[in-house]
Amino acid sequence: MSTGAPLEQLASLLAAGDPASCRIVTGFDGFVDEMITLVGERRSLEDFTPVPDIGSFGTLVSAAAGHSSLREIVVNAVHPGGCAVNLSDGIASLGVAVDCFATLGEPIHSAFGEIGEKCRTFRSWGREPGRTLAFEFNDGKLMFSAVKQLADFTPESVRGFLTDGVFSDACAQAQVIALTDWTLYPHMTAVWRMLQDEVFSKLTHRPHIFIDLVDPSSRSAADIREVASILSGFEVAGPLTLGLNGNEANILCRLHDLASAPADASHQDALGQAHALRNLLGVSRVVVHRIAFAVSSSQAGGFTQPGPFCPHPKKSTGAGDRFNAGFCLGQALGFNDADALALGCATAGFFVRHARSASHEELVEFLMQWSTGNID
Question: Given Cys at both, which of 48, 139, 193, 286 links 53, Cβ 3.0 to 4.6 Å?
């Protein structure tokens, strides 16, 4: 288990890099997210105490069993969402030319306007994006998504969207192709098989391929095992990185009779999971990011990176996508695994403190501050 270059050296390496020379393709989920606070006690129109954490929310729900219950919510903002959209925002803010293909609505929903302006390509499929109600607490978030419209994302319906030349041309120029949110698209396994056979098999270079399944808790064990079985098929086109959070890593491990990790998992616990999953799935790399640290397992070895933990984040929804953005930028720039891991942690660390994605210059400065311990 090892780490990468000192953070100040990584800052210098990033400062010398040229994100504008990189090309990254993202797809395919687009959501409109409503960011919600649950009211615990209201004292006046302006003064209320929010429900602080998920455990407290669970207690309220349990207490309502067998009774009626009413709770007030406060919708704080309406944000563009979806992992592909958040990932695109994180990468494009760093100065990379991003080609995003996602379910953004026809016409594209106004919530996506600012992000669309950052991307080189911002192309929509589908009449309606997904919708998510995101309940935010001090210790995490609970997201409830309306996804019935996403069932129309089938190989037959998207074949023209993904094989008409725009998507394939973008992939042919990309250093990284990132595919996200298998979970909420019922036919995504079949779509990925179609991509493997009809698009990626024709690539003449070997880009990095990055996959984030997203929390598969709502999918059947059979569906999860099926998608896990096809991941190695991407290796024909390029080395695959499977990105997971701690919960997602535990789900895959349990379904394949591998050891789960506790809530207070150590670096070694998480790295053991990453090693086991990489060997089982036959992929080049498995990355597991938890709240306080991240690990990576590849043929180059096992790597761990403590994160710049933020006890009071301004925003947590989308932090994992910004981790992925930093990691993918590291891959696009040719960084080694350890340095890409640290870059992912820094990108997420900036996001939770500022509730927005970092620019290239801001990320360099954040790495310097982190190296001296001078961050909140």
Answer: 139
In contact, 33 and 78? CB cutoff 8 Å: yes
Q: Which domains occur in the chain, in start order?
A: 7-31+81-129+148-372 (3.40.1190.20)
Q: Residue written as tokens 């996959």?
A: 211
Three state DSSP letters for 234-295:
HHHCCCEEEEEEHHHHHHHHHHCCCCCCCCCCCHHHHHHHHHHHHHHHCCCEEEEECCCEEE
| Mean pLDDT on 59-83 | 92
Residue 279 has pLDDT above 80, yes or no: yes
Picking from 283, 304, 297, 164, the residue whose alpha carbon sits closest to that of residue 229 is 283
Rounded distance between C-alpha atoms, residue 293 and residue 270, angstroms: 9
Q: Phi then psi for 177, rounded to 5 degrees?
A: -120, 120
Smallest Cα–Cα separation from 103: which of 192, 187, 27, 33?
Answer: 27
* Phi and psi, residue 187, nearest 5°: -110, 20
Question: What six digits make up the tokens of 333?
Answer: 């720039």
Q: How do residues 30-45 score in pLDDT, each as one tens digit? A: 999 898 999 999 999 8
> CA-based Rg of the chain, rounded to a whole angstrom?
20
The pTM for the full model equals: 0.89
Percent of the chain exceeding pLDDT 70 equals 99
- Whole-angstrom distance, CA of residue 13 vs CA of residue 39: 45
pLDDT in tens, 77-103: 888 989 999 999 999 999 999 999 999
Which residue's structure tokens are 């997971």?
Answer: 244
Strand order in the sheet with 23-28: 121-124, 97-102, 23-28, 176-180, 208-212, 240-245, 285-289, 293-298, 301-306
Would you state the structure tokens that stand for residue 224, as one six-digit string?
């999860």
Burial of 257: CB neighbours in 10 Å, binned 0-12, 13-18, 19+:
exposed
- Tens digit of pLDDT for each residue in 182-209? 999 999 999 999 999 999 999 999 999 9
Paired with 81 in beta bridges are: 31
